[in-house]
Write a structure and sequence with these properties.
Elements lengths: L4 E4 L2 E4 L5 E7 L13 H14 L3 E5 L12 H18 L5 E4 L3 H10 L3 E4 L5 H10 L2 E5 L10 H18 L7 E4 L8 H9 L1 H5 L6 E2 L5 H7 L8 H14 L3 E4 L2 H15 L10
Parallel strand pairs: 3-4, 3-10, 4-5, 5-6, 6-7, 7-8, 9-10
Antiparallel strand pairs: 1-2
Helix pairs in contact: 1-2, 2-3, 3-4, 9-10
Length: 280
């Protein structure tokens, strides 16, 4: 199969026409990138910044997933994210929103509050698939492991993601609402992360819409020598350009404005895109 479009519930995009930028909104005090916003007013201001910078969609998360993070309860996560989802939806009625959670209870509350997609770092559980079906939502499926895989990582990631995608599709989720994410930085060694980035075309070849999240990741810091996460903008930009060359559909980033420039130039070369102001 080969999905020709991708959808966030009622928002449709033609695949291959241009790359979508997913802005990140962390509603947590312990984000690895130091950009967490806990207060509702600050979170809404951050959402506005991402929107003004050109984010096509917004990913809202309330639990840090950095190495060594402390899990939080469903109640605490809901207290953080649900008011923000409601507020963002009220301010931006037509802006696609995804909820970054692996907890079905949080996903349900967020979808009910107006989110369009569940972005799960632990793949596609039966409960998550059922929720996406119930709400007509999209499902972003990420590859993850509790500890690094010792075999050939690219084959492992492709097998696991395809199995989850096929299972979700057979249970009724349309292919254009299933997004596959290789999970850079999750349960993988730095060398494995680089190997996955070198073979993103194989992920694209599976035929489902694709999502990549490399923004400010530690592997980029190791490669560039940048210890501070906020100094990894250019390293992230390099992976964004490589992802577009491979055919990735969505890039999930902290730095939307810088990414929009990378996307504009890369899309022009790779996808034949031109801005409306272009003079031939």
């Amino acid at each position: 199969m080969n999905a020709t479009s991708l959808r966030f519930r009622n928002h449709g995009f033609e695949r291959g026409k241009r790359t979508l930028v997913m802005g990140i909104l962390n509603v947590t005090p312990d984000s690895f990138s130091g950009d967490g916003r806990v207060a509702l007013r600050e979170a809404l201001e951050r959402a506005q910044v991402q929107r003004d910078a050109g984010a096509d969609t917004l990913d809202i998360g309330g639990e840090s997933t950095r190495p060594g993070h402390l899990p939080i309860s469903v109640d605490e996560e809901n207290e953080r994210v649900i008011p923000v989802v409601r507020a963002v939806r009220a301010r931006f009625p037509d802006w696609p929103i995804s909820i970054d959670t692996y907890k079905p209870e949080v996903a349900r509350a967020a979808l009910d509050a107006g989110a369009d997609c569940v972005n799960s770092i632990w793949g596609a559980s039966d409960d998550t698939i059922d929720l996406a079906l119930e709400f007509g939502a999209s499902l972003a499926i990420m590859h993850n492991r509790e500890r690094p895989f010792e075999g050939e990582i690219v084959d492992e990631v492709l097998r696991a993601l395809l199995a989850d995608a096929v299972r979700a599709q057979r249970r009724g989720i349309p292919a254009d609402r299933i997004f596959l994410d290789p999970g850079i930085g999750f349960g993988k060694t730095p060398d494995q992360n680089v190997a996955l980035l070198a073979h993103l075309d194989r992920l694209v070849a599976l035929g489902f819409p694709t999502l990549l999240g490399t923004s400010r990741k530690s592997t980029l810091g190791m490669l560039s020598g940048r210890e501070r996460s906020e100094e990894r903008v250019f390293a992230t930009a390099a992976t964004t350009a490589l992802a577009i060359a491979a055919g990735i559909d969505i890039v999930r980033v902290h730095d939307v404005a810088a990414t929009r420039d990378v996307v504009a130039v890369s899309d022009a070369v790779v996808r034949g895109w031109r801005p409306t102001t272009w003079i031939a």
